[in-house]
Amino acid sequence: MASQPARRKSFIDSSIRLARNNNFHGLDLDWEYPSTTTEIANYGTLLTEWRAAVANESQTTGRVALLLTAAVFRSSDYYSLPLPVQKISNSLDWINVMTYDFYGPGWSPSFTAPPAGLYNVTASQINGDAGIRAWIQSGFPANKIALGLPFYGYAWRLVNSNNNGLFAAANGAAISTYGDVSYGQIKSFIANNSARCVFNGTVVTDYCYSGTTWIGYDDVRSVSTKVGFPSMVSMNIIVGAIHNQQLRRSFIKFIQRS
């Protein structure tokens, strides 16, 4: 779609109609991810044209312009390919940085790891702090950045139940095919299995384990720490993947209290 002008226009026009017909305040683009030089260039063009169309629609109808946002990669470059930071900044009201899904048994099956760690104890720069700072250092306005919080986790199967910390040897996914587990499932697992729960303040992550099942996720202390993190860089918070409405309300209330 993004590579062809006619298809871009069709997508943009239909998205605006959809938003207006449903009384939305705005639109969020979730492209995971533009991963080649050509796709990245097309991504920048799509955002630029989207913003122009939204501005034109607002001017023509007299209605308040729709908000435009996007879920973006954890860093301002996609594995050394720079993203069009200036076009993204000019086109979007803010970005929702996907500071989660760093590790999971589907793509890192041989060891446990923090799916959404704020910091890291290894040399890797796969963590929320490094990603956010990369966006800011690229010139993107900090006040247009939102830090993502996942309301789910990933479950690994431990090789040895006695080796149960971060970066312990693992053998693929537990609980589900790809290891993904909702927050509600995690809480049920803890209660039903008398699982031990650990908060790691160095990485800022939670994990729990029972037998050979190990789950990495964000619980109260991780979320509380992360809610305080954006104030250091004048940014915001977003919450990802809460499918249960009651849990959603509880989680939002918790963030507000934090």
From TrEMBL:
Domain GH18, residue spans: 1-258
One GO cellular component, as annotated: extracellular region
At the top level, the lineage of the source is Eukaryota
Q: Per its record, what are the GO molecular function terms?
A: chitin binding; chitinase activity
Keywords, A to Z, come to: Glycoprotein, Glycosidase, Hydrolase, Signal
Question: What Pfam family does this protein match (any one)?
Answer: Glyco_hydro_18
One of the protein's GO biological processes: chitin catabolic process
Which protein are we looking at? GH18 domain-containing protein
